[in-house]
Here is the input.
Amino acid sequence: MKVFYFNFLKAKRGLALAVVLVGIGLVFTGLMLAETPQAPPANAPTGVTAPAEPEKIKPPAASTAPASQVAGNNSGVAGATAAKGKLHAIYKVKTERKAVALTFDISWGDKVPGPVMDTLKKYNLKSTFFLSGPWVGQYPEFPKRLVKEGHEIASHGHRHIDLDRESREKVREEIMTAHQSIKEVTGVAPKLIRTPNGAYNDMVLEVADQLGYRVIQWSADSLDWKNPGVDAIVNRTLDKVHPGAIILMHASDTCLQTPEALPRVIEGLKARGYEFMTVSKLLEIGPGVTS
Here is the structure.
């Protein structure tokens, strides 16, 4: 019977060698794994972020300016006016020539218009009349006479309201309603407008311009609508007049002193060497300005 002896020393050495080899293998595997890049998981915890995407370039916003003001679009009256700069109302004409435009607003009545027209006919003068739409429809004989006698027909709007307090759509409606009324009765398509009460703002100027109108104010106010007395009307007008002036008077029935004051105003201006013409003719001799 053979007896086998276990060599403990050799076994111990072999086990140590195996442990060393396994350790070396683990270290080598760890190094290999560290060199391999790995994407972060989709549900990465807070603090782990993916690379930011490049910022997207936003397309330019669409223009909100009126078509007439967009570069390259110079069609229509509005485009031509906008190209000259900011829109403005015309108060007078810049000129050294002693020329004035005598203008009249009419919104109601049939007592004052006739005598005013008679005086202008007597002196052979041509003036600009700003007519409200409803008045033209109610008393068509007067607008027709104005055309026949060579006066300039202009608009005073439809209702006698402050347009600067209305919406853009309402302003357009007021201007076009009066425009159609005036054109239907007189056959004339007016190009000048004096807004009711002289009220306007940038929006009103823009709408008027888009519709082919120029807004006309005044630089010499007779204040005849206050009925301050004939002398007061005459003296104020002569004191305020200047070369290129646009004179404001009225031919509505509320202005009862205008027919008597008008001949004296005309005589006084003539004595000072002034000549009379319509607003459009006055604008032919100089630019329309605000001050």
Observations:
- The domain at 78-289 is CATH 3.20.20.370 (TIM Barrel).
- The chain is about 40% helix and 10% strand.
- Strands lie at 92-93, 99-106, 128-131, 152-155, 192-193, 214-215, 220-221, 246-250, 275-277, 288-289.
